[in-house]
């Protein structure tokens, strides 16, 4: 009987961990692209990685937004956010210098660029919220 109870608890715990995600808030700081030039250039030409919780935030019209890695020398994670800064999806560890369009199949309002593999390193999940702190203010 005890074995069945323990086995049941293990199975329930596994299912809870695998399928029920409690959303988190991730604090990220960096620059917000505001001018047309900043929106166009983003992190182009940068050769040094960003710091661990650093990124660049872009605000767009709510639509299927697309980015690329043209003239971008460091691999990035591209994180697509809704108007409330909730993660809708991401493209991870992008290929530097690629001109391939990178997007998800959902409309987004914000796009956050961070170092490649940040999504995994910071345990970011779809549904989590980004609290972005503009380091220029």
Task: Write structural notes for this entry.
The chain has 137 residues and is α/β, with parallel strands linked by helices. The protein has one domain (23-134): Protein of unknown function DUF192 (Jelly Rolls, Sandwich), CATH 2.60.120. The protein has 3 helices and 6 strands. It has helices spanning 2-19, 36-41, 118-121; strands at residues 25-33, 54-63, 76-81, 87-91, 108-115, 129-134. Strands 4-3-5-2-1-6 form a 6-stranded mixed β-sheet. The longest helix is centred in the first third of the chain and has 18 residues, at 2-19. It starts with a helix and ends with a strand.
What's this entry about, in short?
With about 140 residues, this protein is α/β, with parallel strands linked by helices. The chain has helices spanning about 1-20, 35-40, 120, and strands spanning about 25-35, 55-65, 75-80, 85-90, 110-115, 130-135.
In CATH, the architecture is Sandwich
Please give the share of residues in helix: 10-25%
Determine the number of helices (DSSP H or I, runs of at least 4 residues): 3
Distance between the termini: 62 Å
Series of H and E elements: HEHEEEEHE
Going by CATH, the homologous superfamily would be Protein of unknown function DUF192
Strand order of the largest sheet: 4-3-5-2-1-6
The overall pLDDT, averaged over residues, is: 91
Q: Name the structural class.
A: alpha/beta
Range of strand content: 25-35%
- For this structure, the CATH topology is Jelly Rolls
Q: What is Rg?
A: 18 Å
CATH class: Mainly Beta
Shape: elongated
The largest sheet, given as strand count, sense and whether it forms a barrel, is: 6 strands, mixed
State the total count of DSSP E strands: 6
Low-confidence stretches: none
Number of domains: 1
